[in-house]
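Dear Dr. V.,

Thank you for agreeing to look over these. As mentioned in my earlier message, I'm a first-year student in the group and I'm still getting used to reading structure tokens, so any feedback on how I've presented them would be very welcome. I ran two proteins. I've put each sequence directly above its structure. The first is here:
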Amino acid sequence: MNDKKTMLIQSAMKLFGERDYHTTSVQDIVNLAGVSKGAFYQHFPSKEELLFSIFNHHFERVHTELREAESNPHLTPRDLLIRGILVQCQLILENKNFLCMLVKGTAFTEKAISEVMTRESLEMARWFQKRIIELYGPDIEAHSMDCASMLHGCLKEYFFFFIFCNYPIDGTKLAGYLVERLDDLVEGIRRKRPTPILQSALEPLDQVYQTDKQRLESLTEHIELRIRSHQPDTQTAHTMLQTLETIVAELQKEQPSAIIIQGLYNYLLTLAKQDEQLIQLLKTAFDSRIPHHAG
């Protein structure tokens, strides 16, 4: 990103946070950035496109940091969860103007931006959910979205104190503290065995805010996680994961083969045996996607 574009984004965030999106003009933004209107329109066709760029820039940074953390073989599941919380803290606390925009509701005054925010919130919740299952094991899976939701909610409340009360937040300490509280929460769930609240409540939202490709990727992740956490035989689990990978690869071809996909799918269902939840995930992912006219 070049200097002028960065200056425009930073200036817009400051003004959107101090005032709001609607009362801030393009002229206000270029005046603060110290560039011409021509320079603005070289980078952004409209103020709305600038707003999109701000959110995309922020979320791309989040995704990049999380991918780097996931690829680090030295991080334990606990370390990875703490790192994910810390990423959220650092990017928000380092950019108070972006947080001001969120608090003022800038994200939700424009429908398209609102949809982006909702999708990103769901993706973050799913990321936390996956880490929670990896850390605490399959017995907490039914409650994993409730845990992820409470974790994410607590994080947002600390951001509230940071922006409205100017309370200093140490991201590293907060990340460790929240995971310790998550330990307490999971211990309570295991002891009392309550009925989960969000066990399947987010599935309809996934269907609204994800493209078909994103839905398949999300379902594939859930299937992989289910296989790894519930298949006791290592060799069978490896075979199932390879079969799943082959099905997805075939589906992504320009002319996928229905015969190959159907055969692999049936084989995967056979290996799933009595795991009803895994079988349901497989049917949701592939029943409607198997092509009927392919060679």
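The second protein is here, in the same arrangement:
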Amino acid sequence: MRIRTFGADETHGMVFRPGVEGQMTSNALGWTTMFASAQRELPYEGAFPAVRDQLLVWHRDGPAVIEGEGGDKRFCRAVPAGGIHLIPGGADFKINLRNALSTTHVYLRRNVIEEVAAEITRGDPALIEISPHLFDSETMLANLLHPLDCALRQGNAATAFAIDYLSLSIAAHLIRLYSNTTVVRMPRERSARTSTADRAIEFMRANIQESIGLAEIAEAVGLSPSQLARVFKSSCGSPPHRFLINMRIGHAQCLLRSSDLPIAEIALECGFSHQEHLTHQFRRACGTTPAAYRRDYRS
């Protein structure tokens, strides 16, 4: 079953406000667990009703003077470049931006937070709450947001798989540090880990030409995405998205050696969105380009 893309229509709609410039969004990228937008925001004042999903606002420059309120908290201060604003799902909020600011907005689906909470906490995950925060700096969270921002700016639909995996890491980080619950050490699954990984690999192999994400693979093996990510890495030593990329590259190597197909066609045969994406991943894994690999093999 194809999972519904997370679109701008499920957000606060801030990206569509008058006075927002240079917008780019993940609308066309097929991301299902997060939505992101990058933009230049001119000074404004606004009130926004609650949406279900968690919002993170990353300040890409600054300082910017921000005044506002959310939940039971009020604030007014200058936030430097790199600041991050956590706005919980289910909460109304008000913002008064005093000067122009470049931002990246990231929405994380509530069901991802609840799914991860079910794996790393005890109690009802539906009751978990993420507290509102406005940080001058949060290094670990910024390190998680940086690859997401790069994927957004590249505009490459092939990043959807990695975004699924990244959403789990962001959810776990928010739960561990900023939620109303305590993370506990959960027992390791001791049965069926290898067979689950084998079934996941078979699904990847059968769909190597398709744009598949973590959610589709997890559904095929009867696990949640967070369960699959943990079990797969424990069994195979790498995350599912990296394993799939390596599988695609291996298939490309076979086609480069055994066929005269143009490299652009090989890219599509192996599930890459275009030749440049294949070339980038191939060089990263093999230290050379597909064309050079074919030449060297045949020389």
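From my reading of the second output: The CA atoms of residues 215 and 260 lie 35 Å apart. The radius of gyration is 21 Å. Does that match how you would interpret it?

Kind regards,
E.
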